Structure prediction request, 431 residues.
Amino acid sequence: MAPKLNIIIVGGGIAGLSTAISLRRYGNTVTVLERHSCPQALGGPIGLTPNATRVLIEYGLREVMEKAHVAVEGEINFRRWANGEVLDSMRRDELTEVYGFPSWSCSRFKVQEILADVAVQRGVKIIFSAQVFGVDLEKPAVFLKHGTSMEADLVVGADGIRSVIRGAVAGNTEFKTSSPYGSYNIDFPRSLLQSDPEVDYLTRGDNFWFGPQIVVAINMPDHGDNLNVAFGTVSDDGQEGEWHTHGDLEKLKDTFADYDPGIIKLLTYAKAEDCYIWRQSDLPHTDHWVSKSGRVVMIGDAVHAMLPAVGMGASQGIEDSACLAMCLEAAQSIHDLPKVLHAFETIRKPRAEWMVQRGREESVGFFLPDGEAQQQRDAYIKNNRLWLPTGWDGSHVDEPPEGQFNPLSHAYRQAFNIFDYTERRLADLLK
Ligand SMILES: Cc1cc2nc3c(=O)[nH]c(=O)nc-3n(C[C@H](O)[C@H](O)[C@H](O)COP(=O)(O)OP(=O)(O)OC[C@H]3O[C@@H](n4cnc5c(N)ncnc54)[C@H](O)[C@@H]3O)c2cc1C
Prediction:
């Protein structure tokens, strides 16, 4: 029988909290240390793809998440930047029909709030205002302020892109993303837009504009009834993992001055104090996700932060949560931790790193200036459903398909069954 472990998770984001819930399911004692005093209300919408909703449903969260899931009734539209021409449209429930599990969209804040509530109800201890400054990889133990420390059987680093734990395990806390993209973020009150016939269509569906700069407009009724709009720019604006910086609204308006008139009109409603800027960032590959001692492991953005174009940041953290708990459950004693954690790394690393790479390639594809490559992309969007796997026979895709425009790539991303895959791989790796 697997040992019941005393586990510290550093970071109460989506990866840390879903892992806390997952580890509790097997009877482990779990403490989450979060540096902020409460879940942060910042951040835009989070898309939870069917590969992740499958996991949350298995954790018993269907009802609570479906109440919170806030996608508006309208379609998701993919548009041309210059004039808003619709290249393709799809309904969210088309994804459910194809992949067998729903696709949820919620504000990041709401997802975190739900996960934190459920974790606490199930016996997880969350300590807020508990910033971790360092880790003893051998004991293992984490160091908090005023010289205090906490020991555990296992430390899980879920502390996001600026991870302290990564610095200790892999030696690369300081990083500079290779991403050339900045992201301005503004919430617009939906009631204001609904009273203007030139922009009220934006509140009835979600919209993506592809072009030399991109725009993503997602309705978030759960977040003060706002339309959240991300304006992606090719620029060195914004800082990695820094979500509180105000952006220069006038500069943003200049950058989008020749864009779809609907976007120019939308920007007349923007207020400077609501305009934030951050950097779209990912991480270079990290050689090891597990400390040599086999007592500290990293998950989520701490080890595989990816660009938003791939739409998988939160969903990959949620897959980590399922896989990690299953691997730990395969240990016969605490001495097996290095072995099962290396199995976790072996199972998760190639898939997460493929997503990181896809994020880079898809960003290039989304940000194309007008020209031959842009025309090919737009023709592809018109002729193939962008998020649907044309020609897929429904069988599980274990390995990433080759080629940038391979329709099977979405079957690999969204139909992936992390429970079944982990079980099969573990049987192989631990025999
Ligand atoms: C404020 C914020 C806003 C975001 N907004 C968006 C968005 O609009 N769109 C999007 O796609 N993605 C956004 N993200 C990223 C997205 O949430 C993640 O990609 C995804 O959810 C994976 O989450 P994670 O738990 O691995 O990392 P994160 O969400 O970064 O969570 C890490 C957690 O660890 C905590 N932490 C960090 N260092 C320490 C420490 N030393 N000690 C204790 N706790 C620590 C952080 O406060 C945070 O709660 C945002 C992240 C943050 C933190």
User: Anything to note?
Assistant: The longest strand covers residues 181-189.
